[in-house]
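Appendix C: a fully annotated inverse folding record. The material below is reproduced so that readers can follow the format used throughout the book. The structure is listed first as tokens, followed by the designed sequence.
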């Protein structure tokens, strides 16, 4: 999904002349998914495709992106119920257990296999090409330029960009006694010209002032991201309806 506008706005805010870090944008998108209730992000959900992601005769479902936000799993149109790995042997058709999965009451569990994508989901009865299985998951890439949550992504990415600027070596100040780096302690010990010494100290003070400024900007944008999340949750009609229902119950 496109994040061109998001990247442009981050550049406009940070004014550092650098292309925004793509990993920061991904982190911001995942920050949204992690902090907004899943029932409010159904518009950003995607089904796995049995022809490319498994869930047919070819094998188990492999979610194409790394995500913890699995909304549901189904087999041949019937909703599957999650079971623990400890119960995995009992849902097999050969187990003879009352817990066995059936075509109308399928079950699934997460495998611990390591993939270069996302989670591996094992569905029972084993899916076939005629009776396929799908997983519905939140796709963080849909928190993009067209999303109502775009500002959260922008502010969270800016928080990281400003934190990165704050930690630039030149803004840390060099108070060492090193002659090679011309640290402040070295100037104090060796420089007889007080004006040169003061110029050095003022330079370091300016560098530290920049660091403080970027630190404040970083915190400000993190707070803005949290405020946007809070506003989205509180103003969502589903959440409002739930709140009103709870008040009525009292």
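Designed amino acids, in order:
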């Amino acid at each position: 999904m496109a994040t061109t506008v998001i990247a442009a706005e981050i550049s406009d805010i940070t004014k550092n002349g650098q292309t925004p870090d793509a990993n920061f944008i991904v982190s911001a998108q995942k920050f949204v998914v992690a902090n907004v209730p899943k029932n409010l992000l159904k518009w950003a959900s995607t089904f796995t495709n049995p022809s490319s992601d498994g869930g047919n005769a070819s094998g188990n479902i492999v979610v194409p992106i790394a995500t913890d936000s699995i909304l549901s799993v189904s087999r041949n149109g019937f909703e599957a119920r999650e079971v623990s790995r400890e119960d995995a042997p009992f849902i097999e058709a050969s187990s003879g257990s009352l817990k066995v999965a059936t075509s109308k009451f399928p079950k699934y569990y997460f495998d611990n296999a390591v993939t270069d994508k996302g989670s591996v989901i094992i569905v029972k009865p084993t899916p076939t090409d005629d009776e396929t299985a799908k997983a519905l998951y939140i796709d963080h890439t849909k928190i993009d330029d067209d999303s109502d949550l775009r500002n959260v992504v922008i502010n969270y990415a800016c928080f990281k960009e400003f934190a990165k600027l704050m930690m630039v070596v030149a803004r840390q100040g060099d108070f060492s006694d090193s002659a090679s780096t011309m640290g402040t302690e070295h100037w104090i010990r060796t420089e007889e010209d007080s004006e040169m010494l003061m110029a050095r100290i003022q330079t370091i003070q300016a560098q530290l002032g920049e660091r403080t400024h970027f630190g404040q900007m970083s915190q400000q944008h993190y707070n803005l991201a949290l405020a946007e999340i809070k506003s989205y949750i509180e103003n969502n009609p589903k959440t409002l309806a739930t709140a009103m229902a709870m008040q009525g119950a009292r």
